[in-house]
Structures are given as C-alpha cells and as structure tokens.
Amino acid sequence: MRGRHSRRACWCRCRAPRCMQRQQGWRGAVAVPYPLAEEQGWAVAGEALRQVLRQARVRCHPKVLCIVNPGDPTGHVLSRQSMEDIIRLVAEEHLLLLADEVQQERAFLPGCPFLSFKRVLWEMGAPLASTVQLVSFYSLSKSVAGESGFRVGFLELVNIEEGITLPFQLAQSIPRPCVLGRILLDLLMDPPDEGDPIQKALEEQRQGLRRDLAHNARRVQEVLGRAPGICCQPVQGGARAFPRIQLPPRALQQARVLGLEPDVFFCQELREATGVVLAPGSEFGQPEGTYHVGLSLLPPAETLEPVLLALTRFHTAFLRHFS
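RE: above sequence
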C-alpha cells in the first residue's frame, strides 16, 4: 500500500514502553508506536493496534510488528489468548512478527507462565502454523546468566521467505562476542546431561533468579501500593517494575521552565535528594498525560528495601512541596 508521498516500510512497536527512541529507522523505515493498556496490566489491545495500523497506512507501508514478552519495563507476561489474537492479527495484516523473548527466564509467577510465540503458533495449527512469519530473539544477558554484559544470544527464523533472510546472513559478519559469552552460549545450546553437577548448578541459578525477582516484585507491590500518588500494575516477569507517579501541576510547570520532561525532573530531584537513580518513563514511552519511573528488581532484597522507602518518602514530600 502506498502513502500519499512515498512508499516507506515501517515497523510497529509499543508506545509504553517504547525502547527504540529513534523514529527514523534502518534504510528509511519509520517507527509506528502503539499503546499498551495499562489498566489491563499493560495488555496488547488488538483494536487499538488495528487503529494505529490504519492511521499509519496514510504515510507508510506497515511491514513488521514487534512484541516484547515478558514486557520491559512493564513486567507483563502475555497470556495464550493474547498471543493467539496477535498471531491472527499479523496474519490478517500480512506483517512479519518480531518476538523479543529475551527475558523469558524471568517469568516468575506460576499462574502466568511464559509461552514462546513459536510454540503457540505451532499449536494453533494450519494454516497459520505454516504461513505466519516469525523471528524470535533470545539473549543470555537477560536470561540464564541473570546479568547484562555478555552481549550474546541467538534468533530463530520461522516460515521466513528467502528474500528476508539476506539481512540475517549479512549479520554473520558482525564481530564475535566475548569469550565468556561464547562459552555460556555453547553451554546453553549443548547442556550437560541430567545429573551432571553443572546442570544442577544451572538449574539452581535459574530457580534462584526467579525466586529473587518474585520476592522483589511482591515487595514493590506491597510498599508502593500503600504510597499515596503511586500506582503500580502487577509485575509478572522481567527485571523491572513501571509504577505510575502523580505529579502536581506546579511540578509540571517547573519542569517546563527547565525544559525537562516532568518525570525527568522528578528523577533528577529524587537523585539529588536521596541518591536513588531511577529511569524516567519518558525514556521508554508512556501514555500521554501519565508519568512513570522504571524500577529495577535485580538488586538484592536488602538493597531494594531502602530504595523503596526513600522513593515513597521523597514522593510524599515532593507532592507536599509542589501542591
């Protein structure tokens, strides 16, 4: 489909969060942000996504839909029904589905298990299982290892047309990852036999990571849930929470005077007053008129507790000062 001035490929990515800040993409592609439904636990709203696609076709040609599951920084985990709806949508709209599934090891609630798009697509059967084009991404830094920095992972191509595989073939010329990362990748792709001490240590690492994240997520809900002016949707996976913070009109005005986004202003004031560093929600993208902060769940529990206390006390004082 052709836009009014030129035919341009575009890719769709969620507005909350929106991890890609650049609107101008690779070889003329443009980002088309779409919203997540915060009040429904950051669900992917199918009708809202369809509306965004209709509006985008006025100026570009949508080609790709990017889904992040588990969500970052929102911490949601897609249900099977949501994933099936997304697969049907990309089939109807003739889109390539990019599934960012790098945090799959961090889905920590028993009632909200991680399901891969490949598995759901396969179980939906023909004709979707053999026609929907899917690229799935996995990363060691956000999964088994439990810490960033290894810069190694892999992707899987499902039902991909031959012409689309060329960029991935060219990507083989990218410099190889560090030695430690390559060792970890080899271990993941060819795991030790059952009963091997290394296999046992690896499973303990996985369980310990999920256990610690689940504990920290519960504490975030408990502490922030009692704080006036802070609202946080339940966190089901990933390594961050994305609470919404109330900012009074005088704070918004002061932020405008300083030429800052309101949540950036809040985070700067928080850092100067307490030493706590949080990521402003505007770095990821957020619904218009709302303000959020990205809060890591990775610190040890004994480190997270004083952070939560400092945040709630500072926010209370912030509201009082600018009211």
